[in-house]
Amino acid sequence: MLSMSDDSVMMKQVQATHAPDGREVDVAPLLHLVEDILNRATLQVSFVFISVRKKAGQAHAEMEEKNHQISYSIVLDALSYVIDRISCEIAYKALGGADAHSTTVAIFETLASFPWDAKLVLTLAAFALHYGEFWLLAQIYSSNQLAKAMATLRQLPMIMEHSGPLKPRFDALNKLIKAMVEVTRCMVQFKELPPSYISEDVPALTQAMTHIPTAVYWTIRSVVACANQITLLTTMGHEYALSTTEAWELSSLEHKLTNICDHLKQQLGSCYQHIDDKKNVETFRMLVELFEMTHIDNMKILKALIHARDDPMPIVDGSTKRKVTLEVLRRKNVLLLISDLNISHDELSILEQIYNESRIHTTRLDSQYEVIWIPVVDPSIVWTEAMHKQFETLQSTMPWYTVSHPSVIEKAVVRYIREKWHFRNKAILVVLDPQGRVVSPNAIHMMWIWGSNAFPFTSLREESLWREEAWRLELLVNGIDPMILNWIKDGKYIFLYGGDDVEWVRKFTNTARAVAVASRIPLEMAYVGKSTKKELVRRVLATITVEKLSYFWQDPTMIWFFWTRLESMLFSKIQQGKLDDHDPMMLEIKKLLSYDKEGGWAVLSKGSNIISNGHGNTVLTTLVEYDLWKEEIPVKGFDLAYDDHHKKVHGVTYPCCRFEFPNTAGRIPEGMKCPECHRYMEKYTTFLCCHDEGHPTASPFRGEL
After folding, report:
1. What InterPro entries does this protein's entry cite (predicted)?
2. pLDDT tens across 313-334, in order?
3. What is the pTM of this model?
């Protein structure tokens, strides 16, 4: 249109007219009215502006409209004269044959005292007045006599008769008008940026400010072009509109405004990101301070974590599936179940079982707590329909409270959960007392180990429960399988064993059964699988079933729960900072977890009393060498004879000790002592992909000696 040098001269001319007097003009209500007019004033509704809002109900819609009417009155009382003047000036200059640039400069001179955004909205309002009148007559002249007479004066019936050939021209007008509105909306949004969160020295805003005069000029220039089209159409007839002499200008201006708008939106997005970051920092700081304060109840804490916005009922009751207010949680012990959308069926199944058992005893003081699911979704990921369905599926299965949508968990809250409560992707259970204080940063381990008996799930309660525990078989299987508990009551010898080597399982079970027969002891064996490699475990289970090697758990959830409880015992000690205390019970648990990573293993007990805990190789060797220690049985008894020989074998073949902590585990110890030799273990980083698990387990930290 113009060369670069002419463009520079032109903008200097526009800048020279800009002399704002400092008045603040709220043009947002006027823009809303203008958009409504332009949205309705078309030959065919081909676009809908973003400002068309969803109404929550008729009463809300009427209240909103009433508020808009008040805003319109205030703005128009002050600016209607200016709008009328610009409208008349545009029409007059179009009829006088003035070129578009001179008309545009004249408008800038008329609006010299207004800020840039007001110049644009007022000019667009002047055009809407003229354009809206044209289409109002076009839409009602066939049914209203007054409108028909006025439409005839403007040659509208003739124009409408040729609406078919005119459609491409009106489509071009609509596209340009849409671009004009988009740029104008950007201008108003820049003006509405909160100065408390962003200043003009922010690069994105600085860059935008330098382009705003150019954007305003080309938008007003486009208004003039559109107004000229309508004015000349109603004065010169449809023959003018059918000519192609000026058609190129509409498409050229639309292309130019689209480029300008794209650039402004990019800068506006950067500004919003800057504001969002500052608000998140502020909200995060507020959360930190809030959790350090003392409160009379938990409502301030819950409202800070679950941002209701305009929804007075931001949570869903799992028992009724109805939305409720946060008041249902006031002054209650609240367990925040925090997870991503990939929380496993096994976890939910066991949690539901524990939760439902606690509901049976609702009158008991040790069962009065509520659970609410807090789903954490990466704020940088675009929310999809598939994710929404996944959320709804999980939500529908939960009997406890859930948030109505993950969006009520703000970005700053997600940051707090990750930084302060060490959430990665593995589910955690943060416990708030009736005053909103965090009494346990993660009670999931207590829940797995002791269930609702751990109420009120405080760190002190955790320490107390550990003091009551001992290294006995009930610790490993309690709450999982009543069959093994019956064996314990009967005082039987019990081999609890695991691993993924079919051949080792076959040799171990057959040899153990032979030793039991030879020693005349009542022996039961139970296979409890492995913490990983589910497909290999399934193969072992198939072999045990066909060959009837031993008792086993048919439900995979029971196997998962066994290993989750064991790992929880380790994490519980990590959380307490007592991982490497000289606690014989914890040493045995660590051995068991380590053996699981290095092949087979077996724990031998007589009733509740655990006799020996050994690696698969040492246990099998001890049983195979039965003839070497069977003479000791009459003297020492089977228990001591077996244990003494196992210790000799173990002393010759020390197995490697290894622990793996996935990055998703949250709290990972800086160092760990070996349960065998008590020296500090070496630390490695391992990348692991277990395809049979259904999803990869990435980047666990691996410690070994």
Report:
1. SEO_C, SEO_N, SEOA
2. 999 999 999 999 999 999 999 9
3. 0.75
